[in-house]
Description:
The protein is α+β, with helices and mostly antiparallel strands and 126 residues long. The chain has one domain (8-106): CATH 2.40.50.100. It is built from four helices and nine strands. The strands form two sheets. A six-stranded antiparallel β-sheet has the order 1-2-3-9-8-5. Strands 4-6-7 form a three-stranded antiparallel β-sheet. Strand 1 (8-9) and strand 2 form a beta hairpin.
Amino acid sequence: MTLPTTLHYTKDHEWIRVEGDVAIVGITDHAQRELGDIVYVDIDTVDKDVAQHDVFGTVEAVKTVSDLFSPITGTVLEVNSKLADAPETVNSDPYGDGWMVKIAIANPAELEGLLSAEAYGELVGA
């Protein structure tokens, strides 16, 4: 299982990469493996404010549907449009082209409460 050390992680299996005042968010390698083949990503929160831990969308796999939880408070700026036609990108490249949303960071202090790669690895037994 891959766990880039430059990212932050949540107990809900999302990752976050900070670029200035914007957070790029996706699901972890562990999460996509547990879900199996992803067939649909449903995110309709563009231009909406989300609070930390709020649901910002869902991901549908062959065997289940799972909520996506925001790792931080902010405004959803963009959804990865590539996922509409190729949701399986989340499986093949969860930390790259499989990102899900970009969120304007409202409260940078929330980043302090997120997990490091090492802590997340311990959580999932990696």
